[in-house]
């Protein structure tokens, strides 16, 4: 099978969940002897870094990229607000990328062209004008729901109105694109059900996020500390992460410290806001961008994921579970995961519940060992990349087979 994968940012280095989700699909398909070509947009926020991963991608995928300046420009934003089109998506619509696609599709044929996220949807018409391939839109989350939740939680009236307008135009665009492709896939059943109810005529499937468990080695000698170290790791330029950590530091952390004066909380990630650096607490530490996320996770005990907005699946949660860590999150953080509160994850519905669950782990650190083992077992059963790749290939084959049957029917008529 020959597959073209189009990405809104380079799938390497694997700095965030989106990069990991795209990267794992690529290598899963290649390892099962399918031919994959990758073209990505690179931006000021997500540049091309010519490291070992870049060389490997170049070798196995004939990787290419196009620079697109996605920085927010206020005149363009104002125009989008006035004429009610999605500025979020329009920033990724590039004439140079369209031309790159046209040049490629004139020379090469593909069986499947997969668009990673709604931000690659502006290229659907160009693809369909120059290719007979089946077009699959892979939706990493329900993008407009992230923005709707941000609207709900925003207190500044002006920002609230702008966010509401942006989320409305994004929703309109996102829902309009699914009927234009041959099929869509989502990472969670929750997201699949949402899109399927709105566009039931478009073929769809849930293809969960998968990881290569060989790369997530659990410390078998791990003994939970009597004073477990709390941590959070994630892209700190993503609004839901910023909002969640601000809530945790202001509402939850003071109550935890009051009960457990010596407990530590450390956050790691790219582009940590200055406001976090000004937060005054001797027990709170900022690690910044760490060289190895897995080693950072292994060095700590309890992962805090205090999300109140967002959509899709939190990939860093799955990674931490694969490394045998205890997770304490909110219902939004656990959304899309087939997990059980108190068995393989802790889900807190309020400030009081989050404080209580953290406190129970501190008082009885042995819980972290049991929860970590259950978390690892969950990932092994639900998110092993080998089985996920099998699902993708089966899904792609069904689309190609459907195309073959249609061609045979036309010929017989």
Write the layout of secondary structure elements.
Layout lengths: L1 E6 L9 H15 L3 E8 L9 H10 L2 E4 L6 H10 L3 H4 L4 H13 L4 E5 L7 H7 L3 E6 L3 H11 L3 H21 L5 E4 L2 H10 L4 E4 L22 E5 L5 H21 L4 E5 L5 H4 L6 E5 L4 H6 L3 E4 L9 H8 L3 E4 L1 H4 L11 E2 L3 H13 L2 H17 L2 H28 L1
Parallel strand pairs: 1-2, 1-4, 2-3, 4-5, 5-6, 6-7, 8-9, 8-11, 9-10, 11-12, 12-13
What attributes characterize this protein structure?
2 domains; Rossmann fold; globular; alpha/beta; 413 residues
Question: What does this protein look like?
Answer:
With 413 residues, the protein is of the alpha/beta class. β11 (302-305), α13 (315-322) and β12 (326-329) form a beta-alpha-beta unit. The longest helix has 28 residues, at 385-412. The protein is built from 17 helices and 13 strands. It has 2 domains: 2-210 and 384-412, 3-Layer(aba) Sandwich (Rossmann fold), CATH 3.40.50; 214-382, Glycogen Phosphorylase B (Rossmann fold), CATH 3.40.50. It has a 7-stranded parallel β-sheet, sandwiched between helices. A 6-stranded parallel β-sheet has the order 10-9-8-11-12-13, with helices on both faces.
Question: Which structural class matches the secondary elements?
Answer: alpha/beta
Tell me the domain tally. 2
Q: Give the count of helical stretches.
A: 17
From N to C, what is the helix and strand string? EHEHEHHHEHEHHEHEEHEHEHEHEHEHHH
